[in-house]
Design a protein that fits this description.
Length: about 325
């Protein structure tokens, strides 16, 4: 017999596959509600959406429910106001509990976030006391992230940015890319200025990605597959400081992961490793004609060959 944690792990895999590619949040909420209700047999499972100063009933499974809940009211309103998951072993002991039904004995409410703001809550009720614990909290918080997936960002300097952008666009989980100039000494440089190698900028690709689909570790390991990590200021036939290689980050969590990856690379290459690892100092978007250049010019120059792009597709062409 599987444990609750094992059931949640299996459910998360099913849920991710279920909502993959779906952009409508109501449709996602409806099917995630049905999946939870079906797999765990909760008494009431559903979402309330934050609209104005109220929570409005959304997709749910179970008996009739309250249609409006005020900000800070009851368990749902408290989770919204305090911006945290609330686990209630006995609803009768919760101050201000809203009794939609006397059959509800214990409850868990999980905030649903979009770009950091709470836009809904997931509410689950049980007929038994003490049903929910930290395992439920942990996995239900992961489940709600499937509705409005978060985006993380990383910046890769990999020589000519045309080919690097095309490569990362083909990787499943990458949501946006743009090419530009990073970590130089001048503001708002033009391509012609960067080309002189007097600005200190490197040609760079800004990669936004969904960490629930592809990790920073995977992206960085892919990056090392498409560069010559021993070549200083040169990739292919492109030579100059603007073509140096580097990985630039914004937060310390990313730095920890990247430092570990770079230490592993140094075991292989030693002091000859010619790839920078630095905080992102600045990034300026390149002119429009450089964006998605190889899509606009399929026969345009690229130091990365067709085999490299086929390699990216193995991770999920979009």
């Amino acid at each position: 017999m599987s444990t609750k944690e094992e059931k949640f792990k299996s459910l998360l895999r099913s849920a991710a596959a279920l909502v993959a590619g779906e952009s409508d949040e109501i449709a996602k909420m409806a099917n995630l509600t049905a999946l939870l209700h079906q797999e765990f047999g909760f008494w009431w499972t559903g979402f309330y959406r934050a609209i104005g100063n109220e929570l409005i009933l959304g997709p749910f499974q179970g008996p009739l429910a309250c249609m409006h809940i005020g900000y800070g009211k009851g368990v749902c309103g408290t989770a919204w106001a305090e911006q945290r998951t609330v686990v209630v072993p006995d609803v009768e002991q919760f101050p201000g509990h809203i009794a939609c039904s006397s059959e509800s004995k214990s409850e868990i409410v999980v905030p649903v976030r979009k770009n950091g703001d709470i836009v809904a809550v997931l509410d689950i009720d049980s007929r038994e006391l003490g049903t929910f614990d930290d395992i439920d909290r942990c996995y239900l918080e992961q489940l709600t992230q499937l509705i409005y997936p978060t985006e993380n960002e990383i910046w890769f300097a990999a020589g000519c940015f045309w080919g690097a952008q095309k490569f990362f666009k083909l990787v499943k989980g990458v949501t946006r890319t743009e090419v530009g100039f990073a970590n130089g000494d001048t503001e708002n440089p033009t391509y012609k200025e960067v080309y002189t190698d007097t600005t200190g900028h490197a040609e760079c690709v800004h990669v936004a990605y969904r960490p629930d689909v592809v990790s920073l570790r995977e992206l960085t390991e892919l990056y090392f597959q498409i560069i010559d990590p021993l070549s200083l200021n040169r990739q292919g036939e492109d030579v100059g400081t603007r073509y140096r290689t580097g990985v630039y980050f914004k937060n310390e969590d990313d730095a920890t992961i990247l430092k570990e990856i770079f230490e592993h690379q140094r075991i292989t290459y030693g002091d000859n490793l010619a790839v920078e690892l630095l905080p992102l100092k600045c990034f300026y978007t390149a002119e429009e004609y450089h964006q998605d250049y190889l899509d606009k010019n399929p026969n345009g120059y690229c130091h990365l060959g067709p085999a490299v792009f086929e390699f990216a597709k193995r991770f999920g062409s979009k």
